[in-house]
């Protein structure tokens, strides 16, 4: 499932018509019929539907939806919100078809006429403005959208809620707040941005026949990581495997006031499939977490005031990957450990306080040949880039890609929609997870799952995508079976990993 900008979607559409010789009216027919079929499963014949159509492809899709539902026996009213002269091309063709099927199109002349009677409709289908919106909506659409958003009707948007930007980075807009959106062809970036995603409501991406070549010619670099992708890429196990086949991981971190973080990462790595895990930390932390991680081994690191102190005591020989920074604290004495870890000739994951230490020494990233994975939340991403958190939240795809390609690293930008980016700029979005993960320790668990995954027989990018999928899916299954979003703990998520494996594999 691809994720596109508005320009990329236009290019895909144009390629399909010009190069693949797909008729535009046919594509519009496919879109409208697919949406009508899905919409019919959500409503009954007693409900009244008002389909609001505008110009362009969005309006044309609306006419097809109206005709299809009318022919199925539904009560359909079409309200055309633009002048006749703006209904052209394929949209005009489908309007004529609708009229020839005894459909009626109302064209109110005044804003009050547009608003009148909307509250008496059971379902409002929004096919007014598509991905081509530029700036805030003009009247009368601005007032119409505000009126729709005050109603209790079921609101379904076609492709994108009217008024919503398709791309990241737009702050000011007025948009329909849909209950459900049927996205056509490919997901739009704004479905995964914190301040625009809620406008979609629940979404479903529908295929209308665009050829794969249309996506490949753009060298598409953004996808949604789905359960099918997890199942396709997650490596199986042989009955002859032994613990060494599934990786020996090292976790470095912990401090006197944050011992649990290291315990969560260590246990999560073991639960997720790592063959062996060693925790390198202070003696006091070992004593406090050893019973929580009885399967782990431990290495003692010198300490000062309860924090790790660099002493060149950590030997990376024999390990397959290392995760560092978890619960480490921000004492200056701990910072050299990050640089020392960067000399290890194995994949390196830097998380938590390790990212803060890294900020003062970003040059170590450019010196490494082995994979580096950074796992920042938006605040840490902003810190690394010297920008505001608001900037990161407005353009997460852009900033994650910029940092990853500039420094040749993998970036796992955590959030409601976690974005995974590889050093070449390829990106995937994970959509599993829920608000129950908004708890201390959730990120530590994810780091442990990542450590286990990158030591299995899959690419680093696939491993990161699968780790994020498992982390979120564990929370989702736990909410369904035994927990709520209020009581879910990070330690619960670790135990939920087994649910994911049993359910999805």
Automatic annotation (TrEMBL):
Residues annotated as domain YjeF C-terminal: 226-504
Matching PROSITE patterns: YJEF_C_2, YJEF_C_3, YJEF_N
CDD domains recorded: YXKO-related (cd01171)
Reaction equation(s) it catalyzes: (6S)-NADHX + ADP = AMP + phosphate + NADH + H(+); (6S)-NADPHX + ADP = AMP + phosphate + NADPH + H(+); (6R)-NADPHX = (6S)-NADPHX; (6R)-NADHX = (6S)-NADHX
Binding-site residues, (6S)-NADPHX: 57-61, 130-136, 159, 261, 327, 377, 444
Essential cofactor(s): Mg(2+); K(+)
Function as written in the Swiss-Prot or TrEMBL entry: Catalyzes the dehydration of the S-form of NAD(P)HX at the expense of ADP, which is converted to AMP. Together with NAD(P)HX epimerase, which catalyzes the epimerization of the S- and R-forms, the enzyme allows the repair of both epimers of NAD(P)HX, a damaged form of NAD(P)H that is a result of enzymatic or heat-dependent hydration.
Quaternary organization: Homotetramer.
Protein name per UniProt: Bifunctional NAD(P)H-hydrate repair enzyme
